[in-house]
Specification:
Layout lengths: L5 E2 L2 H7 L6 E11 L12 E11 L4 H6 L9 H12 L9 H15 L6 E10 L8 E9 L4 E15 L12 E10 L4 H4 L2 H10 L13
Parallel strand pairs: 1-6
Antiparallel strand pairs: 2-3, 3-4, 4-5, 5-6, 6-7
Length: about 220
Amino acid sequence: MDSNFVFQSQHEWQKSLKQRTDIISIQNLLVTVNAGTDAWSRPKQQPALISVNLSLINPFSSAITGDDLDTSTINYGTLSKNIVAAASHEPTRWLSHAGLVKAIETAVADTCPEEDMLYTSEVDVLFPKATLLGEGVNLRLSRAYDLGTHSTVLHLKNLKVAAIVGVNAHERLLKQTVIANVWIDCVTDMLSMAAHNKLEQHVVAVNIPVCALFSFKD
């Protein structure tokens, strides 16, 4: 599927979209998965928080008018069950972080009662146990079907890093705790998606004065 889509940054992808109104959203569906790597880069079974946002090409007004889940919309209960089924695959098969995201995307497409009804889909999988210093590592795959575009972003969420920050002399004597978020856009290499542990180590090793983190304009 990806070979038929133009790769974009997340900003470019968002900017190219028309206004989305009818949206189906599932947030933080907790599933134990045999996918990804843990904080020590080991392929281990671990919890995952799965979020999916879907927008449709046509509004599901007939479902609203008739107060019935017809083919103009997607049953979020069925969608949730299919996502769990796709994520909770047999324990003998291990999936990469990206592999799990794409398996969920396939489950979403299979749940649609009609072909070509999706305008966009956004699949986000967060591994809260994949980091020792933060709140998790997540990978987001965004796709616009009629535009033929997609985007991937790797995110290290809320890393707690000890760093010397500040412009005053006394602030440079001791390290303070800094909450850092790191987004890597346009991730295409499967190995890069799984290299979050090395990325985290680089973030910890960096000690930049806070004045260097900002640019000032008149």
